[in-house]
């Protein structure tokens, strides 16, 4: 290799060092603020409580309270997180669902309460 080829190769390496590798770009994810889920009736769930899957709770950043929204109505409920349940299901007390005018297997929007 000549001196000129070596110099061009070094310049190219310097230019490429500015570009991050694909693995670095993949690590950054935007947090999801809300998710559409199926609300299921469960008489064994206490009133004022909703049971949320662990994966969904992590995605939405839910810790103590969650907000369920449907047709412009919002209701804030306490949260119990379970790891062994379907990801796109949330369980609630039938009395809480009647207050919002919902039936079993209704689609609602779930988000972390502010």
Q: Would you kindly provide a written description of the structure presented here, covering whatever features stand out?
A:
With 114 residues, the protein is α/β, with parallel strands linked by helices. It has a domain at 34-112: Barwin-like endoglucanases. The chain is 29% helix and 35% strand. It is built from 4 helices and 6 strands. The chain has helices spanning 3-17, 22-26, 54-60, 94-99, and strands spanning 34-41, 49-53, 65-70, 73-82, 89-92, 106-112. The longest helix is centred in the N-terminal third of the chain and has 15 residues, at 3-17. The protein is rod-shaped, with a radius of gyration of 24 Å.
Features:
114 residues, alpha/beta, Barwin-like endoglucanases, 6 strands
Overall 3D geometry? rod-shaped
In the CATH hierarchy, what is the class of the domain at 34-112?
Mainly Beta
Radius of gyration: 24 Å
- Strand neighbour order, sheet with most strands: 1-5-2-4-3-6
The CATH topology label of the domain at 34-112 is: Barwin-like endoglucanases
Strand content: 35-45%
How far apart lie the N and C ends?
64 Å
- Architecture of the domain at 34-112, according to CATH? Beta Barrel
How many E strands?
A: 6
Helix/strand structural class: alpha/beta
Query: Which regions contain 5 or more consecutive residues with pLDDT less than 50?
Result: none
Average residue-wise pLDDT = 89
Strand/helix succession: HHEEHEEEHE
What kind of sheet is the major sheet? Answer: 6 strands, mixed, barrel
* Helix fraction bin: 25-40%
Summed up, the helix count is 4
């Amino acid at each position: 290799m000549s001196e000129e080829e070596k110099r061009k190769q070094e310049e190219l390496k310097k230019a490429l060092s500015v570009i991050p590798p694909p693995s670095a770009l993949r690590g950054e994810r935007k947090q999801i603020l809300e998710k559409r889920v199926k609300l299921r009736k469960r008489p064994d769930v206490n009133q004022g409580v909703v049971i949320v899957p662990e994966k969904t709770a992590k995605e939405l950043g839910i810790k103590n309270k969650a907000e369920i929204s449907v047709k412009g109505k919002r209701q804030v409920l306490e949260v119990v997180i379970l790891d062994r349940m379907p990801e796109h299901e949330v369980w609630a007390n039938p009395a809480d669902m009647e207050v919002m005018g919902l039936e079993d297997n209704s689609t609602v929007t779930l988000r972390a309460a502010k």
